Structures are given as structure tokens and as C-alpha cells.
Amino acid sequence: MRITRSYSGKDDVHSVSLDFSYNGYNCITTNTNHTLQLYDCQEGKRKKIIPSLKYGCNHAIFSNDLDKVVHSSTKIDGIYFNMIFRYVEKLFF
């Protein structure tokens, strides 16, 4: 086994979680800089950076649908004041 590609990033940003899609074509990571990053596993390239600055992001997983991701918040008081639910309602309903 040998290294085929390496990425240099910022020293203060670390990956928190990693998950692969059901079909194995995509990978999602969460990072300490409050972003989710979507990668194409076949091409080995990053597809998209998704910021989550308002609530942060901790763990992310793909749902059964191949184009949906669920992630947890890093903010402690979000559920207590129902802020997350109001924010989600405004986005989707």
C-alpha cells in the first residue's frame, strides 16, 4: 500500500467525523471550522463545502436517500430554546 494523494490543510482545522454514502460514491466530513465537506470518491475531489456557522456541526451521516445528510449541532443551548426547530421550519416548510 502506498500514498497516492495527500492534502495539505490548515493546522488548526481537524476532521471530526467521516461517513460514506450507501453506494460508496460520496463521502462527507465535518470539521472543527464549522463546515461539512462533500467529496466524490470516484474522482478523489472535493465537490462542495457546506458552512454551518450558525449551529456548528459535529457528526454527519448520509440518510437512506443518496442526496441527504443529517448532522448534529455543536451548540449546547439550541434544543433548550427550540431555536434549531424554528430555523429548520423556516428553511424547509
UniProtKB/TrEMBL annotation:
Annotated TM spans: none
Predominant place of localization: nucleus
InterPro entries to which the protein is assigned, alphabetical: Swd2/WDR82, WD40_repeat_dom_sf
Protein's cellular compartments: Nucleus
Lineage: Eukaryota, Fungi, Fungi incertae sedis, Zoopagomycota, Kickxellomycotina
Name listed for the protein in its UniProt record: WD repeat-containing protein 82
A GO molecular-function descriptor: chromatin binding
PANTHER family: WD REPEAT-CONTAINING PROTEIN 82, WD40 REPEAT PROTEIN SWD2
Record keywords: Nucleus, Repeat, WD repeat
Gene Ontology CC: one annotated term: Set1C/COMPASS complex
